[in-house]
Write a structure and sequence with these properties.
Elements lengths: L2 H8 L5 E5 L17 E11 L3 E12 L4 E5 H15 L8 E6 L2 H5 L7 H7 L1 E2 L2 E2 L15
Parallel strand pairs: 1-4, 1-7
Antiparallel strand pairs: 2-3, 2-5, 3-4, 5-6
């Protein structure tokens, strides 16, 4: 069985994802299960409008129990701007979508891909995109 058949059997989906918009929250604990998160590098596949695919190998927080990747939005946007500044400056500030991740083997072979379609065929789409809101600090009445 080759790699493509293996991905099709698994449904080509991996991980849950949360793009952390909060500057003061690092999420060292998982917001869902409260276990400690680890730092891991993930090759994130990002679609920037119009028709631009970018692979960003970035350190993210990861909860193994929930299979959740947490990436900080300001860091992702600054890295995207730095990369696009040389190659394609007119797309800086455009809307984007972080679609999934690449396997490590595919990330190492990214220069040999013929086009963006091949990257999209090889990527693992996120199982789901989660959103968390921070509770404000302070005193709250006891729950009834």
């Amino acid at each position: 069985m080759n790699l493509k058949e293996d991905k099709l059997k698994r449904g080509n989906r991996r991980h849950y994802f949360f793009l952390n918009p909060y500057k003061d929250a690092a999420f060292t604990k998982c917001p869902k299960c409260l276990s400690k998160t680890l730092l891991r590098k993930f090759p994130l596949v990002i679609h920037i409008k119009p028709r631009q695919v970018l692979i960003l190998n970035k350190k993210c927080r990861y909860c193994a129990r929930c299979d959740l990747i947490i990436a900080r939005k300001p860091e992702v946007e600054s890295l995207m701007a730095a990369i696009c500044e040389d190659k394609n400056p007119e797309i800086i500030g455009n809307n984007y979508l972080i679609m999934g991740t690449l396997g490590k083997r595919d990330w190492r072979a990214r220069d040999s891909f013929a086009d963006d379609v091949e990257i999209i065929e090889r990527m693992y789409i996120f199982k789901g995109m989660w959103d968390f809101e921070l509770a404000r600090r302070g005193w709250y009445p006891a729950k009834k």
